[in-house]
Amino acid sequence: MPGAIVVGYTATDTGADAVALGARLARSLGAALHLVIVLPNEGTRSPIVPPERAYEDHIKAQGKKWLADALATLPQDLTRSGHVRFAESFAEGLIAAGEEFGARLIVVGAAGGGLFGRHRLGSVASELLHSSTIPVALAPAGSSQSDDHVLPRVTVAVGKRPGAEVLLDEAASLAADSGTDLRLVSLVPFDVPPGLDTGAIRVVGDAHADDVLTEATALLPEGRTAVVEEAQGDSVEDAVAGLSWLPGEVVLVGSSRLAQPRRLFLGSTAAKMLHELPVPMIVVPRTRAEAGDR
């Protein structure tokens, strides 16, 4: 059974973008959708300040109303629910909710002020990318204005760094469970040691692409295909900008090799990609927690 989709919700355009992506993922995977609003708990208040129960009840009731309004906009065929949680931080509350609901993905939107169709990391997304044990899906600005109902394709950026196998497994699983094909974008030219000449990079890239394609094909169910596309360009940004994208597809990237095991950290390659991507990015931890292996 596919894990649930947990959406970090706020009653803003950013929250609407996250809900739209969460709904697309939930529908594609046949998963339950949980919208979560995180409010500051009492531990964030100075001990010399007395509790204001009436105020807390008020903001909790307001949170429930926002959730009810958001849930009412979703298609009736989706299994969905809304939850108010209290935590030290929004990211901490989302991770706890993700663990509670057995989430496959945590979804958040771009920070306010970002360009339409592009990503801009806010404080919540940044904190998640430094601490989550669960893959995090980032919705670009304007996602709520898209009418894409299911994933048309899954793309994964593959290289040779630690965690590549986990990333490929996650991408193949997402493609298989959503009934889509898989595109492998080779980033080997940006992953090889400095000093190799162009010919050596080409040989390394071609050999790696063939190996990964064989592995990906074996992971996919019958009737689903995998293809390799080499990202062309003098830089990661150029390469990503030159790729074609289907409306509504997602791209998976691995977390940094500097990240602690089972934790996310957006590496330099992924950060550069993020600036050029017009589609949602899913960042996958290098290794999975044993209890979360799927």
TrEMBL record:
<dbReference type="InterPro" id="IPR006015">
    <property type="entry name" value="Universal_stress_UspA"/>
</dbReference>
<feature type="domain" description="UspA">
    <location>
        <begin position="4"/>
        <end position="139"/>
    </location>
</feature>
<dbReference type="Pfam" id="PF00582">
    <property type="entry name" value="Usp"/>
</dbReference>
<dbReference type="InterPro" id="IPR006016">
    <property type="entry name" value="UspA"/>
</dbReference>
<feature type="domain" description="UspA">
    <location>
        <begin position="153"/>
        <end position="285"/>
    </location>
</feature>
<comment type="similarity">
    <text>Belongs to the universal stress protein A family.</text>
</comment>
<keyword id="KW-0067">ATP-binding</keyword>
<protein>
    <submittedName>
        <fullName>Nucleotide-binding universal stress UspA family protein</fullName>
    </submittedName>
</protein>
<keyword id="KW-0547">Nucleotide-binding</keyword>
